[in-house]
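Bumping with the actual sequence this time:
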Amino acid sequence: MRLILAPMEGVLDPALRDLLGRIGGWDLAITEFIRVSKTVFPDHVFHRFCPELQNNAKTLSGMPVRIQLLGSDPELLALNAQRAIALGSPGIDLNFGCPAKTVNRSMGGAILLKDTKILSEIVKAVRDAVPQHLPVTAKMRLGYEDDKKAMENAVAIYEAGASELAIHARTKVDGYRPPAYWKKIKPIAEALPINVIANGEIWNLEQAKRCLEQTGCSDLMLGRGALATPNIAKVILGEDKMQWKTVLNWLYEYSQYEVSVDMKTYYPNRSKQWLGFLKTSYPEAQILFDEIKREKTRDSIKNIIESNIEKIA
């Protein structure tokens, strides 16, 4: 079984990818999407989204990272894919699943599931542009308003040359509301000769087991569950869920990262966002969130986290 860290836009940034990679259990991570619309991006854009390119496309702990592209122009996507590969990305992932309204209005993400022809054209163009020994993968939802075209879209993605397909078991309209319809992945996984990866609403070991059983897939992609339980990959592989004190230590580690944006706003917002996910697994996260919710600086939040660590010790 492979466990893949999902490409959560605005959440799983390079710092958090590195941290989760250090916690371990992951076989691969996909970057936040790079939105392609009018140009072939210069190198620094790819390096901003994926600084791991400067480390053989791996986090410092050794977790491989693959660049994801989003857009609707096959030629531009192909050219940007070539640039990403030249910079060291070990393959390309294509986003046909993002449900964000701003993205869909710009003809990106899940809205493309309405047009099977454009899905095929995009995958074929990128596949032709990427050396055959490197994977071209895709992530899709079951559909936009409904799942009537799920099989048709999946087959088109495969026939256009995709090496592997991850399926989020909900439509765009479903958003992230439970449940995820894992059983609807199974006929697609059975029909396609390529590997299908199941994704959606996997927060714990029991859900991981049921997802594998209901989909017939052997591999899982996890997003929000990895933020709620930072060692969920290892939990699925047989370890115990980490204790709250250990989570606090990782929260402190996160405060140490330097990123290529203004940390005055970046870290406070991101730490609060992460605690929002942690609250689903750890009641203590709500208490900590209440302590830091009005804090506006990295140092003040870091000091509060450090104080909480000392209290437990």
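The tokens above came from a reply further down the thread. The chain has a mean pLDDT of 95.
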